[in-house]
Amino acid sequence: MRNFKHFGLGFLLGAAAGAVFAFLPDENGKSTREYLKEDAEDFKESHKELQDGLSRAQEAGSRLASELPAAEQMVSDLNTDVERFKQEADKEITRLQAKIDRLSSELNQDLNESEN
After folding, report:
1. Strand ranges (E), 1-116
2. Hey, CA dihedral for 17, 20, 26, 30, is it positive or negative?
3. Residues of the signal sequence (predicted)?
């Protein structure tokens, strides 16, 4: 019980010293309370900015989620178009290769005939 009295007395003296310290001005004439008030206002402002940023991020996420199906469809359409282009290009390459082979063969025949 005696220890509790010392603890209680120490606690009260510490609280009183803290209260006095809170109201003592520094070299600029500001009290600790004024500094704490400024810090609290800065914290409130930072909290509001954070909330605004989170709201904007949520809105952007919602827009992205709503646009995602259209973007996926566009990518799918592009893949289909690329595949069709490759097929048509392969056909054209095959046709041109056959023409080159035919012309090369005719040229070789003409060269052979002119040598004879």
Report:
1. none
2. positive
3. 1-22
Domain boundaries, the chain: 2-115
| Angle between the N-to-C axes of helices 2-23 and 32-115, in degrees from 0 to 180, rounded to the nearest 10 | 80
pLDDT in tens, 61-78: 999 999 999 999 999 999
Task: Determine the Cα–Cα distance for residues 50 and 44; give it in Å rounded to an integer.
Answer: 10
CA atoms within 13 A on the CB side of 104: 6
pLDDT at 90: 96
Other CB atoms within a 10 A radius of the CB of residue 34 amount to 15
Q: How far is Cα of residue 35 from the mean position of the Cα atoms in its chain?
A: 36
**Residue from 43, 42, 24, 46 nearest 33 by CA:** 24
pLDDT in tens, 36-51: 788 899 999 999 999 9
**Tokens for 12?**
């009260």
